[in-house]
Amino acid sequence: MLLQLPVSAILLDAIAAAAALIYAPYLVVAYGPLQVGYDLSGLTAII
After folding, report:
1. What is the tens place of the pLDDT at every residue in 2-45?
2. Which of 18, 19, 23, 35, CA to CA, is 20 to 30 A from 9?
3. CA-CA distances (angstroms) from residue 42 to 10, 22, 27, 28?
4. CA distances (Å), 7 to each of 22, 30, 32, in order?
5. By C-alpha distance, which of 22, 4, 23, 5 is closest to 13?
6. Is the dihedral of CA 37, 42, 45, 46 positive or negative?
């Protein structure tokens, strides 16, 4: 049986998990340029 958690705690956990799944790819993609020492001020030229 599932843990005896209130419904609000389950919903908040689901929202936090969804936010993590949405933003995780952006963090993974940003890690590459940061690792090689890319100049972050040059990012405006990409956009």
Report:
1. 678 888 999 999 999 999 999 998 888 878 777 877 766 766 65
2. 23
3. 41, 25, 18, 19
4. 23, 35, 39
5. 5
6. positive
